[in-house]
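Quick question, first post here. What does this chain look like in 3D?
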Amino acid sequence: MAINNKRYLAIVSIVIFVLLVLSIAVFHYNAYLLLSFLIISMIMIPFFVRFEMRNVAVREIVILAMLAAIAAVGRVPFAGLPSVQPTSFVIIMAGLVFGAESGFIVGAVAAIVSNIFLGQGPWTPWQMYAWGMMGMSAGLLRNAWWMTKLWGKCVFGFIWGYVFGWFMNLWIIVGNLENMTRETFIGIYMASIYFDLAHSVSNVFFIIVFGASWLKILQRFQRKYGLLETKLETKMETN
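> Answer (accepted):
Ran it through. Tokens below.
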């Protein structure tokens, strides 16, 4: 069974976004846990299909689980510093090394796992989607010439700090559409400027300080154990 991962992820991204909006508009925040598990199920399908096409390597599951756990636990010590955390950095590194699909998985799993400690709520599936898209976009752009440069990774991390915050504002807006005015809309985004800036700057900081060493370590694991081999992914996408 062949599957075009990029096409599937693009379709799933659109479907999940529609479900996020409908979950608030129709169910009024009451189905967020169900939606969270549905998101996990949808993004794991190509992952499991790929495993069916060859012998399952447990170490491949372990490395992604480990990265998701690090990304999730990394939020907890920084809970007192809003939007300052290494979670986005770990997700970006996962996407750069292991590809779009793995980046999406690490981002989505990190969100729901970290919220076990910090609190689940209707924001959880939105965080899963936002961080999943962050990892996915890092994977899709990893071969771009500018992403091989330190400044390119820094620009990517900085921009995503704002994109993440802007997207998270939407769950508040969608849930209050009946009371939404232009002033309220602008106020929500104005109020998030500091937090988005803190997220962006922390992404750049972690990329500058730890980016090179993390990439070196993860790429060494990838080469040594043949994790998520590029050749196989390319073959699957061309079938």
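The two ends are 9 Å apart (CA to CA).
Residues 229-239 have pLDDT under 50 and may be disordered.
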